[in-house]
Amino acid sequence: MTRVPLLLVAACVLLVCMTLTSRAESFRYLTCNGKNVRWKSSFGLVQNLCSIPSGSSQAKAYAASIGQWRGIGGMQDAVYHYGSWSTNHCFVDLDDGWNDVALVEASSIDGSLGTTVVVRSCDRIEEVNILLANLSTQSFDNPDEAFASGACPYSPTRTGRSTFLHELGHAHGLSITSAGGPDNHTFDFTVMRPSPPVPLGGGPSAMFAQPMPDDAAGGRFLYPSSLGETNLMASAQRLTSGTIRSTAPWKTIQRCRGEAFSFHFTTANTGTKTVASDQRFFIAQSPTAHAWTGITLGTWYGATVNAEKQVHPSITTTVPCGTPKGLYWLYHQVDANNAVVESSESDNVIHNPLTIQVLDCGC
User: Fold this and answer.
1) Whole-angstrom Cα distance, residue 170 to residue 241?
2) How would you class 96 by CB atoms within 10 Å of its CB: exposed for 0-12, middle for 13-18, buried for 19 or more?
3) C-alpha to C-alpha distances, 343 to 168, 202, 271, 340, nearest whole angstrom
4) Cα separation of 265 and 318, whole Å?
5) Is 2.60.40.10 the CATH number for 232-362?
6) Burial zone of 40 (CB within 10 Å; 0-12 exposed, 13-18 middle, 19+ buried)
7) How far is CA 121 from CA 101, 118, 125, 218, 219, in A?
8) Residue-by-residue DSSP string for 223-239
9) What is the CA radius of gyration of the chain?
10) For the chain, what is the total number of helices (H) and then of strands (E)?
């Protein structure tokens, strides 16, 4: 057993006959002797109160991440919070049978935002130790939905929540790498990307860092259940040539009434069923107007998104005649008429980084 203070981390991973594997989806996993590497039963995490105090932003991020992985419909609830070490337990013991979760100095995990030490015997995961860069490197506050995690120009260090989700994905068996082997991360529209920027969901009060369609697909593959799920979400990010970008530029454009402008939008389907819904685009004079009616720019009727996939179309619209002059934020709403019964309705509306200064001209 190796005892590690929270300023130093060493990793030792047992691997036998490992193969890197992926499917038609982008999620990745390992196999050993033809079997998927995963937990054979549920696993409990132990919170390190020395570095993740109760009530802190990192504690809230930790709890939210467990809830989000457990909240994927069609996936067995594998992870749970088992308990906590005392506040003077300021170290992590590797290979001691406990699944520790702690914050450490980034320098002790090779400068990364997080790492997960996985102990396993062939296809059976036996222990995980989840180590995240501490508050000196990243914040665990809710990031801004309009910018990918790690790419927000005025709060670039709000990566902690996405990092928790990412490392919990590893703890389940997603994108883990064999010792000395090639990197096994995916570069898709997923929280399992190797580094920021990472896509986010939206909503008036949602946890913006959340599992994307491919993450949900990977969880269901490794831990299948007989249940299904229907859920759409809006995102202000899109995937372009393997890179996460904003659906619209971060700038203010000036337009007269009746004048056109273009942008992309993202509708993600984290559920197990292909869904068609109406996509509404509107503007409002506040970045927190998710629940407002706003001024409708247009509606894309019957847009279909396949199960566990996302789409990133472009759209051109005009500023409606009669729009009062002023500064407006751009919004996208999935399932605009609430015709689809979803597992979550809180992630259906997103504001984009683009703002429009409507001038007193035009129709």
Assistant:
1) 24
2) middle
3) 21, 15, 9, 10
4) 16
5) yes
6) exposed
7) 21, 10, 7, 21, 20
8) SB-S-----EEEESEEE
9) 22
10) 3, 22
219 with 28: CB under 8 angstroms?
Answer: no
Euclidean distance between CA atoms 307 and 343, whole angstroms:
14
For residue 126, give every residue at least 6 positions away whose Cβ sits within 8 Å of its Cβ, in sequence order, or none.
Answer: 97, 119, 120
Rounded CA-CA distance 176/170 in Å is 6
pLDDT digits (tens), the chain, 363 positions: 565 566 443 333 332 333 444 445 689 999 999 999 999 999 999 999 999 999 999 999 999 999 999 999 999 999 999 999 999 999 999 889 999 999 999 999 999 999 999 999 999 999 999 999 999 999 999 999 999 999 999 889 999 999 999 999 999 999 998 888 889 999 999 999 999 999 999 887 678 899 999 999 999 999 999 899 999 999 999 999 999 999 999 999 999 999 999 999 999 999 999 999 999 999 999 999 998 889 999 999 999 999 999 999 999 999 999 999 999 999 999 999 999 999 988 899 999 999 999 999 999
358 strand-pairing partners: 255, 326
CATH number of 2-222: 3.40.390.10
Go through the chain and tell me how many residues it has. 363
C-alpha distances (whole Å) from 292 to each of 62, 170, 236, 286, 320 are 31, 38, 18, 10, 17
For residue 332, give the nearest of 310, 315, 357 by alpha carbon: 315
- What are the domain boundaries of the chain? 2-222, 232-362
Q: Which H or E run contains 60?
A: helix 57-70
Structure-token match 């990977």, residue found: 218
